[in-house]
Amino acid sequence: MTTDQTSGLAPVTADAVAGALHGFLTKRIKTELAPDQDLFKSGLVSSMFAMELVVHLEEAYDIAIIGPELKLDHFRTIEAMTSLVLRLRDAAGTGEDG
Amino acid sequence: MIADYTEHRLAVVGAGVMGTNITTLAVGHGVPVVLVDLSDDVLSLARKTIAQQLRHAQLLGALPPDRPRGGLVTSVSLGDVADATTVIEAVVEVPETKAKVLAEVSALVRPGTTVISNTSCIPIDEMAAWVSHADSLVGVHFMNPSYLIKMVEVIRGSRTGDATLGSVRSLLAALGRDALVIRDSPGFVINRLLHPLINSAAMLVDEGVASPEVVDGLLEGCLGHSTGPLRTADLIGLDNLVDSLNVLYERRKDESCRPCELLLSKVREGDLGRKTGRGFYSYGEAAS
After folding, report:
1. Is A31 on the interface with B (CB under 8 A)?
2. Residues 6+ apart with CB under 8 A from B276
3. Which residues from A are below 8 Å from B284, CB to CB?
4. CATH number at residue A40
Protein backbone atom coordinates (compact mmCIF):
# COMPACT_ATOMS: atom_id res chain seq x y z
CA MET A 1 0.00 0.00 0.00
CA THR A 2 2.87 2.40 0.67
CA THR A 3 3.88 2.39 -2.98
CA ASP A 4 0.33 3.30 -3.99
CA GLN A 5 0.30 6.22 -1.63
CA THR A 6 3.66 7.57 -2.77
CA SER A 7 2.66 7.27 -6.42
CA GLY A 8 -0.50 9.28 -5.72
CA LEU A 9 -2.82 6.52 -6.88
CA ALA A 10 -5.90 5.30 -5.05
CA PRO A 11 -5.27 2.26 -2.78
CA VAL A 12 -6.07 -0.88 -4.72
CA THR A 13 -8.02 -3.47 -2.79
CA ALA A 14 -11.44 -4.76 -3.79
CA ASP A 15 -13.09 -2.84 -0.96
CA ALA A 16 -11.24 0.37 -1.76
CA VAL A 17 -12.06 0.20 -5.48
CA ALA A 18 -15.71 -0.66 -4.86
CA GLY A 19 -15.99 2.09 -2.26
CA ALA A 20 -14.40 4.70 -4.51
CA LEU A 21 -16.61 3.69 -7.43
CA HIS A 22 -19.68 3.85 -5.24
CA GLY A 23 -18.72 7.39 -4.22
CA PHE A 24 -17.97 8.46 -7.78
CA LEU A 25 -21.19 7.03 -9.20
CA THR A 26 -23.58 8.19 -6.51
CA LYS A 27 -22.16 11.70 -6.84
CA ARG A 28 -22.58 11.66 -10.61
CA ILE A 29 -26.00 10.03 -10.91
CA LYS A 30 -27.42 11.19 -7.58
CA THR A 31 -28.91 7.76 -6.84
CA GLU A 32 -28.00 5.10 -4.28
CA LEU A 33 -26.51 2.03 -5.94
CA ALA A 34 -26.18 -1.64 -5.01
CA PRO A 35 -22.86 -3.35 -5.93
CA ASP A 36 -24.61 -5.69 -8.38
CA GLN A 37 -27.04 -3.17 -9.86
CA ASP A 38 -26.88 -2.93 -13.68
CA LEU A 39 -26.28 0.74 -14.44
CA PHE A 40 -27.26 0.45 -18.07
CA LYS A 41 -30.24 -1.87 -17.84
CA SER A 42 -31.82 0.27 -15.14
CA GLY A 43 -31.44 3.37 -17.33
CA LEU A 44 -29.38 5.16 -14.68
CA VAL A 45 -26.64 6.18 -17.06
CA SER A 46 -26.40 6.89 -20.77
CA SER A 47 -24.18 5.26 -23.37
CA MET A 48 -22.17 8.50 -23.39
CA PHE A 49 -21.45 8.11 -19.67
CA ALA A 50 -20.03 4.63 -20.31
CA MET A 51 -16.97 6.19 -21.93
CA GLU A 52 -16.51 8.58 -19.01
CA LEU A 53 -16.37 5.52 -16.77
CA VAL A 54 -13.64 3.96 -18.91
CA VAL A 55 -11.52 7.12 -18.78
CA HIS A 56 -12.15 7.57 -15.07
CA LEU A 57 -10.95 4.04 -14.25
CA GLU A 58 -7.90 4.35 -16.49
CA GLU A 59 -6.84 7.60 -14.85
CA ALA A 60 -7.68 6.64 -11.27
CA TYR A 61 -5.91 3.26 -11.39
CA ASP A 62 -3.23 3.79 -14.06
CA ILE A 63 -4.54 1.00 -16.29
CA ALA A 64 -5.23 0.72 -20.03
CA ILE A 65 -8.58 -0.83 -20.89
CA ILE A 66 -8.09 -2.03 -24.45
CA GLY A 67 -8.84 -4.86 -26.86
CA PRO A 68 -11.30 -7.48 -25.64
CA GLU A 69 -11.45 -5.86 -22.18
CA LEU A 70 -13.23 -2.87 -23.71
CA LYS A 71 -16.79 -4.13 -23.62
CA LEU A 72 -19.87 -2.91 -21.85
CA ASP A 73 -20.33 -6.01 -19.68
CA HIS A 74 -17.22 -5.01 -17.72
CA PHE A 75 -18.84 -1.69 -16.75
CA ARG A 76 -22.37 -2.75 -15.91
CA THR A 77 -21.96 -2.99 -12.16
CA ILE A 78 -19.65 -1.79 -9.41
CA GLU A 79 -18.66 -5.44 -8.88
CA ALA A 80 -17.74 -5.94 -12.55
CA MET A 81 -15.69 -2.74 -12.66
CA THR A 82 -13.90 -3.63 -9.43
CA SER A 83 -12.88 -7.02 -10.76
CA LEU A 84 -11.71 -5.45 -14.04
CA VAL A 85 -9.52 -2.95 -12.19
CA LEU A 86 -7.96 -5.63 -9.98
CA ARG A 87 -7.38 -7.95 -12.93
CA LEU A 88 -5.66 -5.28 -15.03
CA ARG A 89 -3.56 -4.08 -12.09
CA ASP A 90 -2.44 -7.66 -11.44
CA ALA A 91 -1.70 -8.26 -15.12
CA ALA A 92 0.46 -5.14 -15.21
CA GLY A 93 2.39 -6.37 -12.15
CA THR A 94 1.47 -3.32 -10.11
CA GLY A 95 -0.82 -5.11 -7.70
CA GLU A 96 1.70 -6.29 -5.09
CA ASP A 97 5.03 -4.64 -5.41
CA GLY A 98 4.13 -1.42 -7.26
CA MET B 1 -27.66 -4.11 -51.92
CA ILE B 2 -23.91 -4.42 -52.41
CA ALA B 3 -22.20 -3.12 -49.31
CA ASP B 4 -18.54 -3.70 -50.10
CA TYR B 5 -16.74 -1.32 -47.81
CA THR B 6 -13.51 -1.56 -49.86
CA GLU B 7 -15.14 0.31 -52.76
CA HIS B 8 -15.36 3.54 -50.82
CA ARG B 9 -12.82 6.28 -50.09
CA LEU B 10 -14.25 9.14 -48.13
CA ALA B 11 -13.23 12.75 -47.76
CA VAL B 12 -14.80 14.70 -44.91
CA VAL B 13 -14.54 18.49 -44.94
CA GLY B 14 -14.84 20.11 -41.51
CA ALA B 15 -13.43 18.47 -38.37
CA GLY B 16 -16.01 19.77 -35.90
CA VAL B 17 -18.51 17.70 -33.93
CA MET B 18 -20.15 16.08 -36.97
CA GLY B 19 -17.03 15.77 -39.12
CA THR B 20 -15.25 13.80 -36.40
CA ASN B 21 -18.35 11.70 -35.71
CA ILE B 22 -18.76 10.75 -39.37
CA THR B 23 -15.03 10.01 -39.64
CA THR B 24 -15.24 7.68 -36.63
CA LEU B 25 -18.20 5.89 -38.21
CA ALA B 26 -16.35 5.40 -41.51
CA VAL B 27 -12.95 4.42 -40.10
CA GLY B 28 -14.66 2.02 -37.68
CA HIS B 29 -16.38 0.36 -40.65
CA GLY B 30 -13.15 -0.08 -42.61
CA VAL B 31 -13.58 2.90 -44.94
CA PRO B 32 -10.52 5.16 -45.33
CA VAL B 33 -11.03 8.89 -44.68
CA VAL B 34 -9.22 12.07 -45.60
CA LEU B 35 -10.35 14.62 -43.02
CA VAL B 36 -9.81 18.26 -44.03
CA ASP B 37 -10.00 21.38 -41.90
CA LEU B 38 -8.44 24.85 -41.97
CA SER B 39 -6.45 24.38 -38.79
CA ASP B 40 -3.78 21.90 -37.68
CA ASP B 41 -4.87 22.44 -34.08
CA VAL B 42 -8.45 21.45 -34.90
CA LEU B 43 -7.20 18.37 -36.78
CA SER B 44 -4.92 17.37 -33.94
CA LEU B 45 -7.83 17.57 -31.50
CA ALA B 46 -10.01 15.68 -34.00
CA ARG B 47 -7.50 12.80 -34.09
CA LYS B 48 -7.74 12.45 -30.32
CA THR B 49 -11.53 12.69 -30.41
CA ILE B 50 -11.79 10.07 -33.16
CA ALA B 51 -9.51 7.68 -31.24
CA GLN B 52 -11.74 8.11 -28.18
CA GLN B 53 -14.94 7.70 -30.20
CA LEU B 54 -13.60 4.50 -31.77
CA ARG B 55 -13.09 3.15 -28.24
CA HIS B 56 -16.61 4.28 -27.30
CA ALA B 57 -18.04 2.55 -30.37
CA GLN B 58 -16.11 -0.64 -29.58
CA LEU B 59 -17.24 -0.50 -25.95
CA LEU B 60 -20.85 -0.47 -27.08
CA GLY B 61 -20.38 -3.17 -29.71
CA ALA B 62 -21.23 -0.74 -32.51
CA LEU B 63 -18.43 -1.68 -34.93
CA PRO B 64 -18.18 -4.77 -37.17
CA PRO B 65 -15.58 -7.03 -35.49
CA ASP B 66 -14.34 -8.57 -38.75
CA ARG B 67 -13.01 -5.47 -40.53
CA PRO B 68 -9.66 -3.71 -40.24
CA ARG B 69 -9.95 -0.03 -39.41
CA GLY B 70 -9.93 2.36 -42.36
CA GLY B 71 -6.90 4.62 -42.64
CA LEU B 72 -7.17 8.21 -41.44
CA VAL B 73 -5.34 11.06 -43.13
CA THR B 74 -5.77 14.60 -41.84
CA SER B 75 -4.98 17.58 -44.04
CA VAL B 76 -5.28 21.35 -44.21
CA SER B 77 -5.35 21.21 -48.02
CA LEU B 78 -8.77 20.91 -49.64
CA GLY B 79 -7.01 19.56 -52.74
CA ASP B 80 -6.61 16.25 -50.90
CA VAL B 81 -10.33 15.49 -51.41
CA ALA B 82 -9.75 14.98 -55.16
CA ASP B 83 -9.25 11.22 -55.03
CA ALA B 84 -12.31 10.41 -52.88
CA THR B 85 -15.28 8.43 -54.17
CA THR B 86 -17.55 10.50 -51.92
CA VAL B 87 -16.99 13.88 -50.28
CA ILE B 88 -18.98 14.80 -47.18
CA GLU B 89 -19.25 18.50 -46.39
CA ALA B 90 -19.60 19.07 -42.62
CA VAL B 91 -18.63 22.72 -42.14
CA VAL B 92 -20.54 25.29 -40.07
CA GLU B 93 -24.22 25.93 -40.82
CA VAL B 94 -23.53 29.33 -42.40
CA PRO B 95 -24.68 29.60 -46.03
CA GLU B 96 -21.68 31.69 -47.19
CA THR B 97 -19.20 29.16 -45.77
CA LYS B 98 -21.03 26.16 -47.18
CA ALA B 99 -21.28 27.89 -50.59
CA LYS B 100 -17.54 28.54 -50.71
CA VAL B 101 -16.57 25.02 -49.61
CA LEU B 102 -19.04 23.23 -51.88
CA ALA B 103 -17.98 25.29 -54.92
CA GLU B 104 -14.32 24.48 -54.28
CA VAL B 105 -15.00 20.79 -53.65
CA SER B 106 -17.07 20.40 -56.78
CA ALA B 107 -14.28 21.98 -58.86
CA LEU B 108 -11.71 19.55 -57.41
CA VAL B 109 -13.43 16.17 -57.73
CA ARG B 110 -13.95 14.02 -60.80
CA PRO B 111 -17.39 14.32 -62.44
CA GLY B 112 -19.68 11.69 -60.95
CA THR B 113 -18.15 11.89 -57.48
CA THR B 114 -20.97 11.93 -54.93
CA VAL B 115 -21.02 15.12 -52.88
CA ILE B 116 -22.92 14.83 -49.62
CA SER B 117 -23.85 17.77 -47.47
CA ASN B 118 -24.43 17.04 -43.81
CA THR B 119 -26.44 20.26 -43.63
CA SER B 120 -28.71 20.74 -40.64
CA CYS B 121 -31.25 23.05 -42.25
CA ILE B 122 -30.06 24.67 -45.50
CA PRO B 123 -32.09 23.16 -48.38
CA ILE B 124 -30.23 20.98 -50.89
CA ASP B 125 -31.82 22.87 -53.79
CA GLU B 126 -30.23 26.09 -52.52
CA MET B 127 -26.85 24.36 -52.42
CA ALA B 128 -27.33 22.96 -55.92
CA ALA B 129 -26.64 26.46 -57.26
CA TRP B 130 -23.19 26.39 -55.63
CA VAL B 131 -21.85 23.19 -57.25
CA SER B 132 -20.92 22.40 -60.84
CA HIS B 133 -22.80 19.06 -60.97
CA ALA B 134 -26.09 19.44 -59.14
CA ASP B 135 -27.11 15.86 -59.94
CA SER B 136 -24.18 14.60 -57.79
CA LEU B 137 -25.31 16.52 -54.69
CA VAL B 138 -27.41 14.87 -51.98
CA GLY B 139 -28.15 15.63 -48.34
CA VAL B 140 -27.40 13.11 -45.60
CA HIS B 141 -28.27 14.12 -42.09
CA PHE B 142 -26.14 11.92 -39.85
CA MET B 143 -27.19 11.82 -36.22
CA ASN B 144 -24.90 12.42 -33.24
CA PRO B 145 -23.26 10.13 -32.21
CA SER B 146 -23.15 8.95 -35.84
CA TYR B 147 -21.52 5.65 -34.87
CA LEU B 148 -24.29 4.73 -32.42
CA ILE B 149 -27.49 5.85 -34.16
CA LYS B 150 -28.22 3.59 -37.11
CA MET B 151 -30.86 5.67 -38.87
CA VAL B 152 -29.98 8.61 -41.11
CA GLU B 153 -32.17 11.09 -42.94
CA VAL B 154 -31.37 11.27 -46.67
CA ILE B 155 -32.54 14.36 -48.54
CA ARG B 156 -33.10 14.09 -52.26
CA GLY B 157 -32.96 17.51 -53.89
CA SER B 158 -35.05 18.14 -57.00
CA ARG B 159 -31.88 17.78 -59.12
CA THR B 160 -30.27 14.83 -57.28
CA GLY B 161 -29.64 12.05 -59.81
CA ASP B 162 -30.65 8.37 -59.53
CA ALA B 163 -26.98 7.32 -59.74
CA THR B 164 -26.13 9.62 -56.83
CA LEU B 165 -28.93 8.20 -54.72
CA GLY B 166 -27.73 4.68 -55.55
CA SER B 167 -24.17 5.60 -54.61
CA VAL B 168 -25.21 7.08 -51.28
CA ARG B 169 -27.31 4.02 -50.47
CA SER B 170 -24.30 1.81 -51.16
CA LEU B 171 -22.07 3.94 -48.93
CA LEU B 172 -24.61 3.98 -46.10
CA ALA B 173 -25.03 0.20 -46.33
CA ALA B 174 -21.23 -0.20 -46.06
CA LEU B 175 -21.35 2.03 -42.99
CA GLY B 176 -24.09 -0.12 -41.47
CA ARG B 177 -26.64 2.71 -41.54
CA ASP B 178 -30.34 2.54 -42.39
CA ALA B 179 -31.71 5.37 -44.52
CA LEU B 180 -35.09 7.02 -44.91
CA VAL B 181 -35.31 9.29 -47.96
CA ILE B 182 -37.31 12.52 -47.99
CA ARG B 183 -37.83 15.48 -50.31
CA ASP B 184 -36.12 18.81 -49.82
CA SER B 185 -37.33 21.49 -47.38
CA PRO B 186 -35.58 23.82 -44.87
CA GLY B 187 -34.71 21.76 -41.79
CA PHE B 188 -35.93 18.62 -43.58
CA VAL B 189 -38.04 16.43 -41.26
CA ILE B 190 -35.91 16.03 -38.17
CA ASN B 191 -34.66 19.53 -37.55
CA ARG B 192 -37.91 21.20 -38.58
CA LEU B 193 -39.46 19.27 -35.71
CA LEU B 194 -36.51 19.07 -33.31
CA HIS B 195 -35.07 22.60 -33.42
CA PRO B 196 -38.25 24.49 -32.47
CA LEU B 197 -38.81 21.85 -29.75
CA ILE B 198 -35.35 22.54 -28.28
CA ASN B 199 -35.89 26.31 -28.59
CA SER B 200 -39.21 26.02 -26.73
CA ALA B 201 -37.62 23.80 -24.09
CA ALA B 202 -34.96 26.48 -23.52
CA MET B 203 -37.70 29.15 -23.27
CA LEU B 204 -39.45 27.11 -20.57
CA VAL B 205 -36.21 27.02 -18.59
CA ASP B 206 -35.67 30.77 -19.14
CA GLU B 207 -39.20 31.52 -17.92
CA GLY B 208 -38.56 29.54 -14.74
CA VAL B 209 -41.31 27.05 -15.52
CA ALA B 210 -38.99 24.05 -15.09
CA SER B 211 -35.30 23.18 -14.78
CA PRO B 212 -33.44 21.46 -17.66
CA GLU B 213 -33.56 18.20 -15.67
CA VAL B 214 -37.34 18.44 -15.32
CA VAL B 215 -38.00 19.40 -18.95
CA ASP B 216 -35.84 16.50 -20.16
CA GLY B 217 -37.25 14.19 -17.49
CA LEU B 218 -40.79 14.82 -18.73
CA LEU B 219 -39.99 14.22 -22.39
CA GLU B 220 -37.94 11.16 -21.54
CA GLY B 221 -40.36 9.72 -19.00
CA CYS B 222 -43.69 10.63 -20.59
CA LEU B 223 -42.96 10.77 -24.31
CA GLY B 224 -40.27 8.10 -24.47
CA HIS B 225 -37.49 10.32 -25.85
CA SER B 226 -34.23 8.48 -25.21
CA THR B 227 -32.46 11.83 -24.73
CA GLY B 228 -34.40 14.95 -23.70
CA PRO B 229 -34.28 18.11 -25.87
CA LEU B 230 -31.80 20.02 -23.71
CA ARG B 231 -29.37 17.11 -23.36
CA THR B 232 -29.72 16.77 -27.15
CA ALA B 233 -28.98 20.49 -27.53
CA ASP B 234 -25.77 20.09 -25.53
CA LEU B 235 -24.77 17.20 -27.79
CA ILE B 236 -25.48 19.17 -30.99
CA GLY B 237 -23.59 22.24 -29.76
CA LEU B 238 -25.53 25.40 -28.89
CA ASP B 239 -23.65 27.55 -31.44
CA ASN B 240 -24.61 25.20 -34.24
CA LEU B 241 -28.16 25.09 -32.94
CA VAL B 242 -28.44 28.89 -33.06
CA ASP B 243 -27.03 28.96 -36.61
CA SER B 244 -29.54 26.32 -37.68
CA LEU B 245 -32.46 28.07 -35.98
CA ASN B 246 -31.46 31.26 -37.83
CA VAL B 247 -31.48 29.38 -41.15
CA LEU B 248 -34.95 28.02 -40.37
CA TYR B 249 -36.28 31.36 -39.13
CA GLU B 250 -35.00 33.28 -42.16
CA ARG B 251 -36.60 30.82 -44.55
CA ARG B 252 -39.88 30.06 -42.81
CA LYS B 253 -40.54 33.10 -40.58
CA ASP B 254 -41.75 30.69 -37.93
CA GLU B 255 -41.47 32.51 -34.57
CA SER B 256 -40.82 29.25 -32.72
CA CYS B 257 -37.51 29.12 -34.63
CA ARG B 258 -36.24 32.53 -33.53
CA PRO B 259 -33.35 31.63 -31.17
CA CYS B 260 -34.43 32.43 -27.61
CA GLU B 261 -32.44 34.70 -25.29
CA LEU B 262 -31.18 31.89 -23.04
CA LEU B 263 -29.64 30.07 -26.02
CA LEU B 264 -28.05 33.27 -27.31
CA SER B 265 -26.62 34.16 -23.90
CA LYS B 266 -25.09 30.70 -23.45
CA VAL B 267 -23.42 31.01 -26.85
CA ARG B 268 -22.12 34.50 -25.96
CA GLU B 269 -20.64 33.09 -22.74
CA GLY B 270 -18.98 30.20 -24.59
CA ASP B 271 -21.13 27.54 -22.89
CA LEU B 272 -21.68 25.55 -26.08
CA GLY B 273 -22.61 22.14 -24.60
CA ARG B 274 -20.62 18.94 -24.26
CA LYS B 275 -17.78 20.14 -26.48
CA THR B 276 -16.90 22.95 -24.04
CA GLY B 277 -17.86 21.02 -20.90
CA ARG B 278 -20.94 23.12 -20.14
CA GLY B 279 -24.26 24.01 -21.76
CA PHE B 280 -27.59 23.32 -20.10
CA TYR B 281 -25.68 20.74 -18.06
CA SER B 282 -22.09 20.45 -16.80
CA TYR B 283 -19.91 17.58 -18.01
CA GLY B 284 -16.95 15.72 -16.73
CA GLU B 285 -15.79 17.73 -13.71
CA ALA B 286 -16.19 14.76 -11.37
CA ALA B 287 -14.14 12.60 -13.74
CA SER B 288 -11.08 14.82 -13.52
Report:
1. no
2. B270
3. 52
4. 1.10.1200.10
* A96 part of a folded domain: no
Residue A5's pLDDT band, with cuts at 50, 70 and 90, is: very low
pLDDT of residue A6: 43
Q: To the nearest whole angstrom, how far is the Cα of B254 from the nearest Cα of chain A?
A: 33
Min Cα distance A56 → chain B (Å) is: 6
Q: Is A47 on the interface with B (CB under 8 A)?
A: yes
Partner-chain contact B59 A50, CB within 8 Å: yes
pLDDT score of B16 more than 80: yes
Contact A33, A53 (CB under 8 A): no
Is the pLDDT confidence value at A97 over 80? no
Asked if A61 and A85 count as a contact pair (C-beta separation under 8 A), the reply is yes
Distance CA(B12)–CA(B35), nearest Å, equals: 5
Which chain B residue has its CA at the smallest distance from A51's CA? B56
CA dist A63 → A39, A85, B59 (Å) = 22, 8, 16
Output the average pLDDT for chain A: 83
The pLDDT value recorded for residue A98 is 41
Domain residues for A67? 2-91
Distance, in Å, from the CA atom of A76 to the CA atom of B181, rounded to the nearest integer, reads: 37
Q: Which pLDDT value is given to residue B155? A: 98
Evaluated on CA atoms B198, B200, B201, B205, the torsion sign reads positive
Identify the band that residue A10 occupies on the pLDDT scale cut at 50, 70 and 90. Answer: low
SS3 at position A84? helix
Domains annotated for chain B, with CATH where assigned, are: 5-183 (3.40.50.720), 191-277 (1.10.1040.10)
Dihedral sign (CA A55, A56, A62, A63)? negative
Quickly state the pLDDT bin for A40 (edges 50, 70, 90).
Answer: confident
Please check whether residue A64 touches B, CB under 8 A: no
- How confident is the model at residue A8, as a pLDDT? 53
